[in-house]
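User: Second chain of the day. Same drill as before.
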Amino acid sequence: MPETARGIDPRGPRFAAAITSVLLLVDVFLGLIGATVPAFVLLVVIALLFVWGVASPRTAPWGALYRSLIRPRLAPPRELEDPRPPRFAQGVGLFVTAIGIALSLLGVPWAVPAAAAAAFVAAFLNAVFGLCLGCQLYLVLQRAGVLGRRTADAA
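Assistant: Same format as last time:
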């Protein structure tokens, strides 16, 4: 891992994904029962949380909550993780929710629950199984040369 990218506890993003998946599931439910305004507002809030996670992951609320309340009660992680893939995954979540918001503003009736459901699947897989789809996309794009590559000795 390059010196500029400090490692993070891999349990932190999973904790954040668990909270995010609950919020997204509530959003899907609201959208499906016809509570369109609350569903839209909640999706905007979730999108803003994704913005926060991309712009300043160190101060993002779920990460701060994990570091202050949860991590001190756990054994140290066996290994640290590169922070770039989870940060990229936050950007993917932002992209998905932003598409839902934009389509909803254009009058597409099922845009909010569909976007929330898509984001929920990704967050749920990360929270429950540790499978971060955004992180996997980051690695694919990195191998393809689209995103920055690690140095040879760090790879």
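The helical segments are 11-32, 36-55, 61-70, 84-105, 111-129, 133-143.

User: Great, on to the next one.
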